[in-house]
Design goal:
alpha+beta; elongated
């Protein structure tokens, strides 16, 4: 299975998407590059093949059942192993911290029609999380440890978008009651009606979470999305 790594064309360092400027930004030389230009550069380098390397490993082997649902990739920058679950589409190498895209997960006919880029960077997300923790005296210390906060990362979640046009015709019975009285009697008048109603309504781009691994209540909390 192949993976794609985006590197800075100027210094060769890993390049990442910056939500603030909505472009790819190199954190080392601060070069910026739009996504279209980076894709064109990557297509020009597709013909290059890495030099073959042979590695020996004398550690323990996977036990029976431990690899179920896991896929192993090789990082093209440091040759380290990236162990991920079957649904993962993008991650970072745990050895060189280089961002990678697992292209095999985006093959087939179900290509996303729309991808919503991140609006908040990692630093802003960590700051918001720290602010959320303030005043929570019973919060376990492990949640506030810096190592735990550094694990914060962005996740792309697949959504289905549904459009629907509905119409309905209804028939129902109704009554109207009128009550009055005079000096001698109390009166009660009941009128019966047969009512007909009809209507139409349309729905556009109704999002439905397409991931089984994420709680639906969590994804619903970030709706609605601005899709244009």
């Amino acid at each position: 299975m192949s993976i794609v790594e985006f590197k800075c064309p100027n210094c060769g360092a890993p390049i990442q998407f910056d939500p603030g400027i909505q472009e790819m930004l190199c954190p080392y030389c601060e070069s910026t590059l739009n996504v279209e230009a980076l894709q064109a550069l990557d297509e020009g380098l597709e013909g290059e093949k890495p030099e073959p390397m042979k590695w020996g490993y004398g550690g323990q082997k996977w036990q029976r059942g431990e690899q179920e649902g896991l896929v192993v990739y090789s990082c093209r920058s440091c040759a380290g192993e990236i162990v991920a679950d079957e649904t993962l589409g993008a991650t970072t190498c745990p050895f060189c911290d280089n961002p990678v895209v697992l292209t095999s997960k985006f093959a087939g006919t179900l290509r996303p029609d729309v991808v919503i880029p991140f609006k908040v960077g990692k630093a802003e997300a960590v700051a918001a999380l720290k602010k959320h923790y303030l005043g929570k005296k019973l919060l376990p210390k492990v949640f506030q440890d810096q190592n735990h906060l550094e694990e914060v990362k962005g996740v792309y979640v697949p959504f289905w978008l549904f459009d629907a046009d509905t119409d309905a015709d209804m028939e129902y019975k109704a009554t109207r009651v009128r009550v009055w009285s005079d000096r001698q009697y109390n009166y009660r008048e009941v009128s019966h009606f047969r009512n007909f109603r009809s209507g139409q309504i349309g729905y556009s781009k109704v999002p439905v979470d397409g991931s089984r691994a994420i709680d639906d209540l969590l994804t619903q909390s970030i709706e609605p999305f601005e899709l244009g």
